[in-house]
Amino acid sequence: MGAGAGSYEPAGRELTAVEPSQAMIDQRPPSAAPCIRAAAEDLPFADDSFDAALASMTVHHWDDLDRGLAELRRVARDRIVIFTWDPGVAAESWLTADYLPELRELDLFRFESPAQLAERVGGATTTAVPIPADCRDGFIEAFWARPEAYLDPVVREGMSGMRAMDQEVVATAMARLEADLHSGAWDRRHGHLRDRAEMELGYRLVLAELR
After folding, report:
1. pLDDT for 105
2. Which of left, alpha, beta for 149 (phi over 0: left; psi -120 to 50: alpha)?
């Protein structure tokens, strides 16, 4: 669910992808799994259609969380796996704290923590997922050790939080970041992050075994 452009689809599995955005579907490569355009709250599948339901970086976009979770339970036989993030942890990152505190006001930052989500799913466990310094995905915290990446508008376009903001605010913040990188101010504050292999940023796997 929320398959997007196909970044989160495991290899070696028979998959059916679901994505509500035609713009994201259009970005899927020919090698990606077949994709159906639908929303989490109304999945076009019979009960127990799949061994597992996987939702990656998507629950904060749903209009009705409980209904979406109920749909995942309805169509999955064995387990539900949700990859999500804790907005409280992300709100304290250098990107948010130093440059874009406005991110905290977005609806994308106003949703359940992974622990609360696990309670809603029922009987679920949570596991921390540290983010590697060379993370190939482009979600908003993926470049915690590569601040120069945020200056690229193509990179920012792949981040729902950046897209949801007033672009003049983003441009002003990125100009400050660029100036701090040029002057060395960013490295004086956060340069130690460049030497880390991974970082705990509040990302979690929520796993529910259904039987």
Report:
1. 84
2. alpha
